[in-house]
Amino acid sequence: MEPERTFLEYLTHISENVSPINFLLIYDNIGRFFEGALVTLQLTFLALLVGGLIAVPLAIARANRKPFFSPAIRIYTYIFCGTPLLVQVYLFYFGLGQFEAVRTSFLWDPILSSPWWCVMIAFTLNTAAYTTEFLRGAIETTPRGEIEAAKACGMSSFTRMRLVVLPNAFRRALPAYSNEVIFTLHGSVIASTVTLQDLLGVGRWLNGRYYLAYEGFLTAMVFYMAIVFLISILFKLAEKRFLGHLRPRIETKPSKVAAPA
Question: Is the whole-model pTM more than 0.90?
Fold first, then answer.
């Protein structure tokens, strides 16, 4: 107990006499920030997972220029990419409840009346729209030589898409998708505006309860920075693993051999 008491005494001394930041209050409520981080990570990665599953068939339909599906998907992506995520969350959380048909439907009580589900649906549809667009671009820019080689091997269009086009597109879309993951994580702060206790929500709670100016926001910022750092490291490792063959190779000049006398 002595080291812990010494540490708390040190925090108290720093908070009261040295630093304008109250580290003691942050330490006492650090568990709430970990709970908020868990909510943030759940919303972010579940939305990315479901949104990614939705985006793959939509991107294939957009790349293949299907007469009916391609224009409909383009309208969907334009709506969700062209409007702020905050507006989309508000429309799901506040807007749907204005309709009597929605309030009396079987989806209201378990799903649409819950702030968690409304945020989850908005995040999923938003990230699916962005992922559809850059995955479509990756599919359309697949090298023609690989497709022609697959045709020469007798592969059907489905087999070519499954074994050649999609793996190639996924690899080349990694840098863009890493940005999408980070943007979705940053956008998750909107969840705190509809009563969810995510990282930013906990920071607001801490500042409001103890009449603080920035301790809660600074703590949330450190958590976000740590999560983004881990995501960046994981994607750098993935890019090194799957895109290593695309990096330019350094040619070594042959060493000069002295001519025999």
Answer: no
Q: Residues 184, 123: contact at Cβ < 8 Å? A: yes
List Cβ neighbours of 25 (8 Å cut-off, separation of 6 or more). Answer: 15, 206, 210, 212, 215
Closest of 148, 119, 27, 31 to residue 19, by C-alpha: 27
* Residue whose C-alpha is closest to residue 87's, from 111, 112, 118, 117: 118
CATH number at residue 143: 1.10.3720.10
162: which 2 tokens? 């499954």
- Per DSSP, the residues of 47-105 read HHHHHHHHHHHHHHHHHTT-TTHHHHHHHHHHHHHHS-HHHHHHIIIIIGGG-HHHHTS
- Does residue 48 lie in a domain region? yes
Residues of the domain holding 198: 21-243
pLDDT tens for 54-98 read 999 999 999 888 788 889 999 999 999 999 999 999 999 999 888
195: left (phi over 0), alpha (psi -120 to 50) or beta: left
